[in-house]
Amino acid sequence: MLSGLEGKDVDVDGYLRQVGVNPQALRTPGDPGVTPMQYVALFYALLNDMQDECMGLFSRPFKPGSFALTAREGLSAADLRHALKRMSKALNLLQDDITFSLQTNGDEAGLHMQTIDPVTPTPVFAQETMVRVLWRLAAWLLNKPLPVLHFDFTYPEPEDQKGYNLVFPAPRRYAQPSFGFWFQASELDTPVSRDEHALRIFLTDAYTQIISPPRDFGAVAQKVRNHLMRSYPQWPTLEAVAEQLHTTPSTLQRHLKEEHTSLQWLKDDLRRDLAISRLSTSRVSLVQLASELGFSDSPTFQRAFKRWTGKHCGAYRRR
């Protein structure tokens, strides 16, 4: 993430300390690295200060709102084919370093990304981020998984591929003339099934959902979490969720228990994510945020936030 800041007048170590990362330890062999939340917090800190959603990786900044604009272009399409075409057109307007296009090759279709200047290759992190973000966004628009046949990258195969299977769960091809992701061409006719309300919720914390490795909530728990996301800022009862999922409250409770979770835990997990996002990216008052998240009052919300993160809301927002 920090590779685009090399050689620039940026206090990288200061940003690392800001999100609770020891710069010296991070550069020491054997250090366990950073947590997903530290990673996302670093992303938000740099984004807010640099006003560049791509962290200086391209010749001109991706101004805040570029990702939202791209997502809305996809949302306005009828199916995946037209969504990828519209998103490609938007991305080609927003930057000057990569040509984005939808391509088909027999039974395969792919979002093709070609570096414009062969003398200046697209950085590794930029390739990986673009491929992952746009694949996850496409799947989100369909509201269903988008199985990938293979991911392509232009850089040589890394010696250490620890973690790659989680982030890119399909065969990876290296040293290719272009980068992108490829899937069954039949998927192009899949309709876009999200709406503006869902997009507004998604954009409150899209980076956490897309950048961080996916969390495995369990099949039933994921359905419950998805319903909670769609219902936000309303917080349905167990009975309402069970009715929506065409089951009984007792059956739903049993399935969640088998997956080592509960409705309350899923609500709190989602409320924590939303609270972190809103405190990091907006000036919403604590009273309003408490109401949005379904708390009876601001002190109750602030106690819960302290329990979730170990920090008071004000201290977290200042950091």
UniProtKB/TrEMBL annotation:
Keywords: DNA-binding, Transcription, Transcription regulation
SUPFAM superfamilies (UniProt xref): Homeodomain-like (SSF46689)
InterPro entries in the cross-refs: AraC-type_N, Homeodomain-like_sf, HTH_AraC
Taxonomic superkingdom: Bacteria
Pfam families: Arabinose_bd, HTH_18
Presence of keyword Transcription: yes
Presence of keyword Transcription regulation: yes
Residues in HTH araC/xylS-type domain copies: 218-319
SMART domains: HTH_ARAC
Coiled-coil regions listed: none
Protein name: AraC-like DNA-binding protein
Source lineage: Bacteria, Pseudomonadati, Pseudomonadota, Betaproteobacteria, Burkholderiales
